[in-house]
């Protein structure tokens, strides 16, 4: 999971760096499409047969894959990239990675993963921290888009539980290619044709690192963990993503953390620590359940 944390934590610095040469939504769609093509190449090199786990035969499964692509890729990537125009990289990383706070109640309702009182307290405390982080930029604009990205990640985590019969690599291929194609249509409508992209060495480097190291590999590991452990315990690992995001923002982009943002970051991290510690305790008490850290 540390690979996931570092990969996702670097996203906003890479996005901010690469957007000097490309419109926002085109950058987001290219990230998804390149990641999908990279996973497709791995799938073909591995010689996976086109069986029902790679090419599902049921329309209902394709419907779920399509919904996953639209929420976890089209919505999440689009909102995530667009949010960078109204937030610092560190604040955007905090808000868009609030999925652990959002997944607790849906996981209880859909999959009987009942949260403990301390987890509910952690959710309430965490949202208080998010308000402090969002306050300097207002509750709309970049902050609202970053939270919308978190909603997309949460929906993707919940949907992943219903797609455990699909090959893990194939699931990544389909969701990135379908979601990236849909996002490219949105980009073409809102930003025009991709003729304004400057294919500089800086942009190509940012795109490749973002697509491979911060998208394809982390998402495969992420979905693999979602199949093995409780949703709350897995999503709680993203508590480290904002910390890494803030560090990358300071180190690479020269951003400064305000006192209000720093306090909000600390509260969010404390809340997520409460959630993950409670989840670990619950996993240890649950027969046949093992931590996958």
Overview of the molecule:
- It holds the Pfam family EamA.
- This is DMT family transporter.
- Belongs to the EamA transporter family.
- The chain crosses the membrane at residues 23-47, 59-81, 87-110, 117-135, 141-161, 168-189, 201-222, 234-253, 259-276.
- It comes from Lentzea sokolovensis.
- It is a single chain.
- The chain is an all-alpha fold and 293 residues long.
- Helices cover 74% and strands 0% of the residues.
- The chain has 13 helices and no strands.
- The longest helix is centred in the C-terminal third of the chain and has 27 residues, at 259-285.
- The chain is globular and about 45 Å long.
- The chain starts with a helix and ends in an 8-residue tail after the last helix.
Individual helix count = 13
- Name the average pLDDT: 82
Distance between the termini: 7 Å
Order of helices and strands: HHHHHHHHHHHHH
The chain-level structural class is mainly alpha
The rounded Rg comes to 18 Å
The biggest sheet amounts to: none
Q: Helix content range of the residues, please?
A: over 70%
Explain the layout of strands and helices.
Layout: H1 2-9, H2 11-18, H3 24-45, H4 59-83, H5 89-96, H6 99-111, H7 117-134, H8 141-160, H9 168-191, H10 201-226, H11 231-235, H12 240-253, H13 259-285
Helix pairs in contact: 1-10, 1-12, 2-5, 2-10, 2-12, 3-4, 3-9, 3-10, 4-8, 4-9, 5-8, 5-12, 6-7, 6-8, 7-13
Q: What labels describe this entry?
A:
DMT family transporter; AA-Vitamin_Transporters; 293 residues; 0% strand; disordered C terminus; mainly alpha; membrane; EamA_dom; transmembrane helix
């Amino acid at each position: 999971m540390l690979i996931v944390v570092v990969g996702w934590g670097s996203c906003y610095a890479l996005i901010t760096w690469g957007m000097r040469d490309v419109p926002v939504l085109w950058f987001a769609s290219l990230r998804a499409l390149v990641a999908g093509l990279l996973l497709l190449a791995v799938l073909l090199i591995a010689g996976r047969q086109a069986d029902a786990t790679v090419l599902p035969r049921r329309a209902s499964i394709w419907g779920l894959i399509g919904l996953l692509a639209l929420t976890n890729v089209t919505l999440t990537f689009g909102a995530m990239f667009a949010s960078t125009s109204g937030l610092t990289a560190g604040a955007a990383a905090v808000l868009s990675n609030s999925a652990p706070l959002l997944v607790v109640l849906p996981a209880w309702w859909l999959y009987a993963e009942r949260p403990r009182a301390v987890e509910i307290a952690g959710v309430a405390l965490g949202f208080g921290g998010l308000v402090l982080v969002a306050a300097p930029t207002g509750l709309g604009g970049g902050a609202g888009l970053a939270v919308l990205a978190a909603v997309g990640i949460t929906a993707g985590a919940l949907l992943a539980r219903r797609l455990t019969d699909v090959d893990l690599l194939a699931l990544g291929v389909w969701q990135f290619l379908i979601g990236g194609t849909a996002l490219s249509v949105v980009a073409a409508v809102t930003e025009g044709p991709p003729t304004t992209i400057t294919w500089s060495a800086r942009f190509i480097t940012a795109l490749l690192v973002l697509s491979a190291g911060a998208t394809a590999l982390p998402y495969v590991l992420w979905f693999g963990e979602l199949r093995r452990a409780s949703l709350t315990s897995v999503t709680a690992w993203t508590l480290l993503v904002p910390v890494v995001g803030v560090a990358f923002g300071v180190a690479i982009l020269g951003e400064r953390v305000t006192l209000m943002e720093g306090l909000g970051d600390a509260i969010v991290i404390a809340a997520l620590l409460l959630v993950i510690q409670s989840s670990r305790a619950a996993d240890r008490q649950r027969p046949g359940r093992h931590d996958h850290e």
